[in-house]
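New to this. Look over this protein:
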Amino acid sequence: MNKKLKIILELAGFLLASLLVFCLLSLMSTPAGNRLKEEVQDQDKIVNYVALGDSLTEGVGDATGQGGFVPLLAKEVENQTTGKVESQNFGHAGDTSTQIYEKMQDREIQTAIKNADFITLTVGGNDVMKVIRDNAARLSKLKEKDFEQPARNYQKELKKIFETIRQNNPEAHVYVLGIYNPFYMNFPNITALQTIINNWNIATEETVKEEKNTSFIAINDLLYKGIGGEKGISESQSQINDLLYTADSFHPNNIGYQIMADAVFKEYQVINEK
């Protein structure tokens, strides 16, 4: 009798332990229905992308008319996520840093910034061009010192842009694209311009480093020589940059914009893997 009771007790203990394990596993795991619900919610998730800046953001030179690197980047991000990327492009050709800042006071743009998950900014190229235009009569004699004060003024405007972004959205990551030298292959004798562009990018990068959740994306080395190009200031005659729009030899073409999008997306992946 004692032996039978012992067997019954052992069996009861085994069943109780099994029941406890089953209950524990049930609590720890997500039911299939809930998992399916979460997957559907992920698919319905909207990633808001806001693009600010000048003609590079507007997409001047994009023969498809789709908006340059902005839709290309949005597609790359969307392919990495289960959700949908919705982009708002506020780029305007010709805008300097001051004009970009002024446009950002618009309520529509500030609302977009407030709802953004990530932001791109192209800025600085028109600030440099303004100095060049103001000194058109002595273009071949331009020196680095001619850009020093304009660069300091530009940095102040860039900080005001960041302040406006952070007042509306403290968390969204901002990707700031540098500028490039479109004249490197067209005007090989203006050797100082490459140094000027490099210094301008350094000024931008220094300002970016002072900001949280902000990355600087260097694009000059990716664009100024063309596709695998090694010609330029070392040559006695100008060359064609096959990454630039043939109609103006200034803005990127479709391939150039794809390179820009890839550069930003590479940093986007690094940031979102942290």
In short: Residues 32-41, 231-236 have pLDDT under 50 and may be disordered. The chain has one domain: 46-273. DSSP finds eleven helices and five strands in the chain. The radius of gyration is 27 Å.
